[in-house]
Amino acid sequence: MMQLEIKNLSFSYEKNQQILHNVSVSFQNGSDDQTSLPTAIIGQNGAGKSTLVKLLKGLIKPDQGQILQDNQAISTQSVAEIARQIGMVFQNPNDQIFKNTVSAELEFGMKNLGFDKMKIRENVAFVAELFSLNDVLDKNPYDLSLSTRKLITVASVMAMDPKIIIFDEPTIAQDLRGKKALSKAIKLLSEQGKIVISILHDMEFVYDNFPRVIVMNEGEILADDTRERIFDDEALIKKAGLDTPVAVKIAKLKK
Fold this sequence. Notes:
Oligomer: single chain
Number of domains: 1
Radius of gyration: 18 Å
Order of helices and strands: EEEHEEHEHHHEHEHEEHHH
CATH class: Alpha Beta
InterPro entries: AAA+_ATPase, ABC_transporter-like_ATP-bd, ABC_transpr_CbiO/EcfA_su, ECF_ABC_transporter_ATP-bd, P-loop_NTPase
Organism: Pseudolactococcus insecticola
Number of helices: 10
Number of strands: 10
GO cellular component, one term: ATP-binding cassette (ABC) transporter complex
Membrane topology: Peripheral membrane protein
Family: Belongs to the ABC transporter superfamily.
């Protein structure tokens, strides 16, 4: 069983301006409860979502508390060790794309982690097929649409085969084709036993793809439950300043 556990985490960018307040939550695979399900973290801007995932990736350090990956504090791990275990897809693909061709970009992370040539070819072929990138492998990513560049970053992270994948707003600027590809990827990652976590504002995509939902507000976790219970709680959704998915609204009208 693989586990990612957050214990009593607090963080401030400046003194007297705490962004996260004593947050505790766990994610794992192979269990019978909801902690093993693909998880969406939702909340308004400023709720602490992005700060939380930066802490999970080891990009910033907490003021207090611990983040444990399989009972080992990530603060004791090197950048390379964290990269092997935890992959993150940034909201803006331009912050993540460095190479001049799509194929080189897909290979980049694996080469840095020491994958052998055969495994690199195998993984590139797999993700290129999964995200319909075979026809653009020789193209410069910056000659392609923003939605395609976002898929390239997802494919690049998946190619590195991390145990945990974190998405930051994967549906922003994404077209219908891209959203379908993302849905397929999330399902596949879950079936492979990966821990899948995503920050999202797209409540329709949340409801369709993430059985577990964590609601954050003002640096705290308001709720951690199934999507059905979360979106059925009108008081909770109102307090968090969120929208109810259309499917939930229609279901309530039919009752």
